[in-house]
Amino acid sequence: MTTRPAAAGTGLAAVDDVEYGARFLGSLSLHEGRDPARLRQWAAAAAEFGAALAPAAIPAPLRIVESGGGLERGLLARYTSRPPTVELYTDSLEAAERLVTAHGWRKWFPAGSVRAAALAHEAVHERLHHGPERAALKEALGHTALRLGRFRVLAHVAGAEELAAHAYAQSVCGLGRTPLLLSAALAASAAPAREK
After folding, report:
1. pTM, whole model, 2 decimals?
2. CB 3.0-4.6 Å disulfide test: which of 43, 108, 125, 147 passes with 176?
3. Residue 109 CA neighbour count, 13 Å, CB half
4. How confident is the model over 99-115, as pLDDT tens digits?
């Protein structure tokens, strides 16, 4: 075991959760060239919205399927609506747990919490896909697509649902940091392997 991962983990952990959200939004082509302050504002609003959705218990999806191949896709889990299913990628979950241990982040991500957070995250995608929360998220973000006098049409903010789902998972699972930190750590650990 080397000290290199811990040093990288320290650098990753130095970035605050809202900044990770803004970086995620900024990585999407639809937000290319957007004001970083606006991206931070949307990231904070989406996180606040997602955290407020947190119920007392994590709702169980109708169907859970476990498979490999998540590391290649850069995913821990994925929600599909027909039929409502959560696909958990066991290789990614195991890699994330190893990174939590290697970086000394266990206080933020207790044992088993990565799987629970992935399920909670995907449960919000189901709610945002089928429920009234989709319109409520647009309202919380306040991004106007069109204004005619006193009437306005709210626009979709690409990536906001993903940030809301991360904040929901953080809140409902009692995590010390957003699961976006784990995503960043997984991406950073995959980068050297792609360069070989």
Report:
1. 0.86
2. 108
3. 27
4. 999 999 999 999 999 99
